[in-house]
Give the backbone structure.
Amino acid sequence: MRITFPHMGNIWIAVNAMANQLGVDLVIPPPTSQRTLSLGSRYSPETACLPFKLTLGNMIEALELGADTIVMTGQYGPCRFGYYHKVQELILRELGYDFQLVKESLGIRNMVRYLTNGSSLREIVSGFRFGLAKLKALDEVEQHVYRIRAIEQEKGNATCIYTGYIKAIDDAGDYEAIKRAKQEHIQKLMSLPTVSSPDVLKIGVTGEFFLVIDHFATMDIEIELGKLGAEVKRPQSVWELVNFNPFIIVFRLKEKNKSRKAAMPYLCHHVGGDGQQSVGEKVLHARHWDGLVHLEPFGCLPEIMARNIMPWTNEELPVLNIVFDEHTGKAGMINRLEAFTDMIRRRKR
């Protein structure tokens, strides 16, 4: 059994760590690229959203590398995402691929035991904790990267250090190696020459979860904001999504409830996906952020609702909505970001 899964941000780091500890034959899809997007777009329904097309492209590339078992989450909700696996399975079988699809509907415990050839619960928990430790370390250093990108003298150095850090965390074989890599790369970031600029902007990035955490899907929008002197604030992370620690779950639910409560005067029902939370993030952080970038896949109904409600909230926080699909151009996105940050600076002055 050669197992694979679609990419979603850096979640592959945790899955790879767990697979190595449990002796699972894992096929990691190639990094998401233009070929991935082209394959997914070619075989997807025209009205399918960008996350659907990218994950389908990941599956095709992994099957080409010899994978025979695909793991894909999918239940009812939180939007059309819950039905991705059904449609993607039909498409892949029509293309002639022979594989087994393992769905989350089996239950997390049964699914993991099946995929790990009956490993003991202790072994599974140990591997899962190690993978989570890697995700947490990545998330913590990424927060430093957001801050340094906005003030570094030579743009791109912080991103280069973080790229090396991702490899170091993936190669780390134990908790001590994770700790060393984290300390070493934070020190590298702190030693970068910076400028003292009074114009550093704090810009939140929110919207549909897949887009918020996947750098390829949004054409490295966080890097481009850093080049424009903006420190990115991102409420969502992969580490918090997959962490089953009861304390983390309670904290995550509290933060989501804060966002939903803040959105209630304007959007009083859960509309699927992250639509209600997107509205709530604007309301919650209007006094702390200088602007908000709202990311939306083309055709995503929850985010369409959020986009149309945001201009009518009482909080005066500038919002830039960007819709992504396979036709979105990076040059046009950068032009919009430049105009948005210029407008915010004039507004602050």
